[in-house]
Predict the structure.
Amino acid sequence: MKKVLIFGYTKTGREIAKLLPKNEYDLYIIDENPMRVAQANQDGFFAQHSVFSDDKLLVDMGIGADVSVLFCASNDESLNLFVTLSARSLDKELKILTLIQNQKDEKRMILAGANRTISPYGVGAIKAFRIIDKPKVSSILNLFARQSNKLSIQEIEIPKGSILDGLYFKDVSIFKEFDTMFLGILDREMGDEFIFFTKGINHKIDCGDVVVVLGSKENIKKLKEKIGAS
Amino acid sequence: MIARLFVSLAYFLDAFTAYKNTKQFIYNLLENPKSKIKPYFDGLIIFLVFITVFILIYSIAHELPDYVEIIEDIAVSIFIFEWLGRFWISADLRHEIIRYHEKKLEEKKHSNFIEILMIILVQKLKFIFSPMSIIDLLAILPAYRPLRILRIFLIFRLLKIFRYTKSLNSFFKILNDKKFEFNFLFLVAIFFIFMSSTTMYVFEGIGNNPNINSYVDTVYWAIITMATVGYGDITPVTLNGKIVTLFLVVGGFFILVLATSVVTNALSEKMEIVRENKLLSQANKLSNLIVIFGFGRMGQTLAQALRKERKRFVIIDKNEQSISRAKELGYLFVKADAGEYEVIEKIVFKNDVAKVVITTENDALNLSILLTIKAENNKIEVIVRANSDENIKKFKIAKADFVIFPYETVAEMAVEYIGSAVKFDAIDNILLHKSSITLDEIDIHDTTEMVGKTLAQIGLEKLSIQTIAVLKEGGIKNFIFNPDPDTYKIELNDSLVVIGEEKNILQIKKNIARQLT
């Protein structure tokens, strides 16, 4: 079980807590507002009230030890910044995702040590924009949403001894065979950046590489079995 | 009998397309603020007005050559045509008559000739006696030769130009709002003038002042003095007259000061409204407008994206700070409370609005805006932001076309991030426009040359563009996922949802557009 810490039981924090599968993640919540702590407890999560003055609490919660992901979901920009920075100084490997209110705060958060930033208003606005600008694209994207369950995007890590291991991409027709679409690859030989299919480079697939595919859930499941990654 | 003739004529005209087209053309030429030809016609009218007035001024001291007569004749015939056109399109009589007739049929009565005539008269007289029509008529009048004495009426042609200045109208409207103050000041002024001119006449009208020969002279003197103009052609000669003058000067000074302050006040109070009206009338000219309620963080990001794509939108917010931001960025905006029906009516219903996005942080307000719009016009697409998950359902019941719950969307992405980081990277890059990879749609219509070709043949594969799905007839009900680029043949009215490099997709779109021409 991965241990996940959410800082700030805000609207976003709450949605994340609700969406995380309970059997896969060990979820801890901290908030500086006792009302929200009560709300979290009421929703059935383990939550603790805290005031951030030093790193002790973060250490107590397991940062630098067994926590693997931290969400800074507070609405208070400076608190998020503070917690992100403190957590990063405790643990270099920790995955930190920080909520920002404004796109221009992204740089600051990354500098403080966040791996990723995310803004509900930015995401919401872009969603609205896509509905206006590209209605057909957004209707197709809806099929990928959690609720509709028709299509899905998934990542597949190539295991050792897989039939794809060591093959060149141009020689592979397995994606077409299962009516799935190859979107890109994380090629360990090329670094940590995700490479889209559009780059047109003929990659050698090795074990440990991660491919991302689109398709119906069923087909992807079959594809995974064939590759040996089920 | 005559009534039946009228009714059948109305029906005949209603079915006669050429008649309707001509009327529409005249409407576009004269009245339709959105038409392209109206500005040219307006320009012509303004030009004619100036040239005829100039001829009038020139003719006072000069002998005119004959051809000037012709210019005058042409101008007047165009003015007559303009007035007749406006007279014609001022009301759709055939609709009125048909409605009247059908109402009578329901009541099982016969149409009455007199009543039909009344309908026609009421509608058309209303037009004839409207201020603008009277101005137009006065502008034509001086052309009638026996009335050449009325040449001075030519000046009325200048009034025609008022039709084209909206700001002047709003200026008068502002002054109209201060009617009470003006009426009061006017009465006081009249009182002062009457008092002082009468006293003056009593003291100096008896022959001791050579410049005062009648009562009119003293009224003239009173007004000139009160207005602080004081020509000095009539001055008081007696002590009594001088005392009256002192009172008049002091009183006139106060009246002037008060009048000035009333006008200044009204202007500064109403300047905001005038500016807003100006923006509104700008919005009026746009078609396919997008209305954004709320200019908070979400509204701002949305506006930014829309501006980049050159979409036309107008922002509504009541918050002073948000509005001043919109002003700074040069967006079209209206400062108003969206909770009021009139605001929505003025901005949404009276304009050509295609889509509405409601982005405020208040769900109750969002719901009220949504319901107001949907109750009046179901065709406008509404995208609404929900701020709490319990309310998503309510928005759906209220017939919102799309509900966006930003916190959930973000949470979905966040959960994705711990589960499958690589996939998150991929999606994040595409969906948030962080890389050059983008999703787009390509519509195939009217391009018979593309029909029947495979996706590879139109060059998608060469440009590394993948087709995620083909939407049949552009709808989501019938679509093909992941079509084979070598075997799928494009049909008419297909829409392709594709993924690829932005510049490559642009290239394909250009190719398609070129084949169209």
